[in-house]
Write a structure and sequence with these properties.
single chain; alpha+beta; Creatine Amidinohydrolase; 30% helix; globular
Length: 247
């Protein structure tokens, strides 16, 4: 969506703050011995407390309040009986709806002790996000975001998962435009002031090729390599974007 009023900006700020607070709270629960299902129950409790709803459940029928993906799982992991163990990379991806507005963010949590490659991978996702943030300005083209992400990822020796991208958001989860994590000359739409998007580097240690698991939801790396994810929802301006989910 593109913001056209202060009322819309207030609604988006409110839902974004909930996402940011919830992810910080849920990240503290990630430890050896807890199940992804237990984290999902906690997420559902937070949403109930905030008067919000899980957007993936609302829009797509996702079977959980939050997507939780481990290790070679890139995104859309279904919470359940799986136990988190030492050395895991845990991706928490939360998209919520309240009062007709939606916001989306994701973090990757390391469960010590993790490998050097795992730590470098997680740091790379955040660096790539920051690089992309630096070019996310009204008047720039959406593929410039992709170039910034891809350059940082390649420089660090990792691979972009090209099939998974950022997106417009606001009134529903996935709105135009697609926000790639690689340079594509055909994705040349200009960013406009007030446009609400996510930037979300999704990267892997290996080739970056992916497939969907038999549960129909979980997207995994084809070569079973580790993957990481970092994401925020923002409003494009002529200067630095307004990070809605970082509050």
């Amino acid at each position: 969506m593109s913001i056209t009023s202060e009322e819309e900006l207030r609604g988006l700020r409110a839902v974004g703050r909930i996402v940011g607070r919830a992810l910080r709270e849920l990240a503290k629960l990630v430890r050896p011995g807890i199940t992804t299902g237990e984290i999902d129950v906690a997420a559902a409790g937070i949403l109930l407390r905030e008067g919000a709803r899980s957007a993936p459940a609302l829009v797509y029928g996702f079977p959980g309040a939050i997507c939780i993906s481990l290790n070679d799982e890139i995104v859309h992991g279904v919470p359940g009986a799986r136990v988190i163990r030492e050395g895991d990379l845990v991706k928490l991806d939360l998209t919520i709806e309240r009062d007709g507005f939606m916001a989306d963010a994701a973090i990757t949590v390391c469960v010590p002790p993790v490998s050097d490659d795992a730590r470098r991978l997680v740091r790379c996702t955040e660096r790539a996000f920051r690089k992309a943030l630096g070019v996310a300005r009204a008047g720039r083209r959406v593929n410039e975001i992709g170039r910034a992400v891809e350059d940082e990822v390649r420089r660090s020796g990792f691979s972009v998962v090209k099939e998974l991208c950022g997106h417009g958001i606001g009134r529903t989860i996935h709105e135009p435009p697609t926000v790639p994590n690689f340079f594509d000359a055909e994705m040349d739409q200009r960013l406009t002031e007030g446009l609400v998007i996510t930037i979300e580097p999704l990267i892997a240690v290996g080739s970056g090729q992916e497939f969907t698991a038999r549960d129909g939801w979980t997207v995994k790396t084809r070569d079973r390599s580790l993957a990481a994810h970092f994401e925020h929802t923002m409003v494009i301006t002529r200067d630095a974007p307004i990070l809605l989910t970082a509050a």
